[in-house]
Design goal:
This protein is of the alpha+beta class. The protein contains six helices and nine strands, in the order E-E-E-H-E-E-E-E-H-H-H-H-E-E-H. A three-stranded antiparallel sheet has the order 1-2-3. The protein has a two-stranded antiparallel sheet with strand order 4-7. A two-stranded antiparallel sheet has the order 5-6. It is globular and about 40 Å long.
């Protein structure tokens, strides 16, 4: 199941086989000492309204062999190793059945903040199309899947990253610094989805 953050209480939402999104779980005991990142009432309302819209879009989109099958679901740059010019994908812990567009959104999610995001997006689409068909109608849903992936990342960071995360080079980043830009981006894109 694809998990998406619920802004009301930082639980998780699961997109089930019926394409409905439902709240699942509250923060566990290990979350008691974590810093909470505030999501105001307007942001909450926006995310919840967009969630409702996304539910309907996913239901209408459905699951067919052309748009839904076994996916990696964690195809981030750090999970692709290159040896002798050949890429090798690692870390299949999150693999399962899901929408192909979700897999594409995972690969793109960390590039959306860059001015040259379109270069990465276009390269991914071109590479994808060299292996399997994906129509323009499908690709029109990619922005929504990027919102879903952002909400998944928000839930993941919130429930798994301690108050500060070591970057491995002596630097650290606070959990809030990881979450705030993702929340702001997700809210902005949720507003855009609602305006369509």
């Amino acid at each position: 199941a694809v998990r998406v953050a619920d802004a009301r209480h930082v639980g998780e939402l699961a997109v089930g086989e019926d394409h409905r999104v439902a709240v699942r779980g509250e923060p566990g005991p290990r979350d008691r000492d974590r810093v909470r990142v505030p999501v105001d009432a307007e942001q909450t309302a926006t995310i919840l309204a967009a969630r409702s819209r996304m539910n309907q879009v996913l239901f209408d989109y459905g699951t067919t062999p052309e748009n839904f099958s076994l996916i990696h679901a964690d195809l981030l740059p750090q999970n692709v190793l290159v040896s002798k010019g050949q890429p090798f994908v690692i870390d299949f812990d999150d693999a399962g059945f899901g929408w192909h567009l979700y897999d594409m959104s995972v690969a793109l999610v960390n590039f959306v903040y860059r001015e040259d995001y379109h270069v990465f997006r276009d390269a991914l689409i071109s590479g994808y199309r060299s292996e399997r068909h994906i129509g323009d109608e499908d690709l029109a849903l990619l922005p929504m899947f990027l919102v879903i992936r952002h909400l998944v990342q928000i839930a993941w960071v919130h429930t798994r990253v301690p108050k500060a995360l070591s970057m491995g080079d002596g630097r650290s980043i606070s959990r809030a610094d990881l979450l705030v830009p993702r929340i702001e981006w997700a809210v902005k894109e949720c507003k855009h989805l609602l305006d369509q």
